[in-house]
Amino acid sequence: MLKRRYAAALAAVFLIAALTACGGREDRTIRVGVALYRQDDTFITSLAQSLQQMVPEEEQVQGVKINLNVVDGRGSQTVQNEQVDQFLDRGYDVICVNIVDRTAAAVIIDKAQAAGVPVVFFNREPVEEDLNRWEYAYYVGTRADEAGRIEGGLVLDAWRAEPSALDRSGDGILQYVMLEGEPGHQDALLRTEHSVRTLTAAGVPMEKLSNHAADWQRGPARLRMQRWLEELGDAIEVVFANNDDMALGAIDACLDAGLEKEEMPFIVGVDATAPALKALEEGTLQGTVFNDAPGQARGILNLSCALALGQDPEDTNLLENGKYIWLEHIAVTRQNLEEFLPEEP
Ligand code: GAL
């Protein structure tokens, strides 16, 4: 008798659990707060657009309503902290943070933990020690050193194919300038280091003429390249840019100076944004590295839904080392450009 009553009680518990998990889901709304470091960043805009475009399909798959609130931190950690506070005060289910200042991650993690709300960082990677502060802190992004190696590989391949086309001075050394992203950003540090190292490790003699942090932006990169062209002129054989917007800034300066594309240095970037693919097609940009915005958006959304619905993301095979979703970079040249061009409507 006792056993039977116990079994009945257990069945009731399972029934309630099943109803909450399935039937109850139809009218459930998941609230996801997305805090961008700056909305006017070309790559971040494309990532945010991908996220928004994926919501209707994900709603179908999950059988829930997803309320995605995207806010712009305008490059200020103070503003972003306030936005995070608001998400938490309003009872959001998950917060996704493209953190302005990577060293401020501990503050955000502690706030999220106090509110019991999982936090998914993306694109701007907190140090592992910070991420390990709390079980429900995650990161979605790409490996910064990999982008650098691929970018260096684009130059190495061209050097191997026809050294004289790059080494215009004929001195056997590749003279280069480096346009860097924000100081302290993992992508700026590691892309800079590994792009050059890929060539030196392959035995190509390299000489740095100058470097400058143009903070991922086209305008400042253009101004700096104008100055370099005045000071260094033809001596610049390669321009490494940590991202495409800065590579496009360098191209703008070359065009301003009246250079034909054949006269420009060998310019490479990272991201494979739409305007960069156009420049590649036109022949002013020599190569870029695909930074998978849709893949990162998919990772952020899948992880957020799993967390909001109380699923263990480990069970869904989403994570590496319990914390990370990594997307891979791909080299883009004129040979495989077609694969990356947006589909015609
Ligand atoms: C990089 C990207 C840059 C910029 C930066 C912002 O991954 O290549 O273009 O968007 O992130 O954090």
Task: Give an account of the 3D structure.
It is built from 12 helices and 12 strands. It has 345 residues and is an alpha/beta fold. A 6-stranded parallel beta sheet has the order 2-1-3-4-5-11, sandwiched between helices. A 4-stranded parallel beta sheet has the order 7-6-8-9, with helices on both faces. β3, α4 (105-115) and β4 form a beta-alpha-beta unit. The chain starts with a helix and ends in a 13-residue tail after the last strand. The model is unreliable at 1-24 (pLDDT under 50). Bound molecules: beta-D-galactopyranose (GAL). Beta-D-galactopyranose binds at residues 41, 43-44, 123-124, 187, 216, 243, 270-271, 291.
Short characterization:
This protein has 345 residues and is of the alpha/beta class.
Adjacency order of strands in the biggest sheet: 2-1-3-4-5-11
Largest sheet features: 6 strands, parallel
Estimate the global geometry from the Cα principal axes: elongated
- How many helix segments? 12
Bound molecules: beta-D-galactopyranose
Q: Look at the structure and give the mean pLDDT.
A: 92
Structural class: alpha/beta
**Alpha carbon gap, first and last residue:** 67 Å
Give the number of DSSP strands. 12
Helix percent band: 40-55%
Q: Poorly predicted ranges (pLDDT <50, ≥5 residues)?
A: 1-24
Percentage of residues in DSSP E strands? 15-25%
Radius of gyration: 24 Å
What string, H for helix and E for strand, traces the elements in order?
HEHEHEHEHEHHEHEHEHEHEHEE
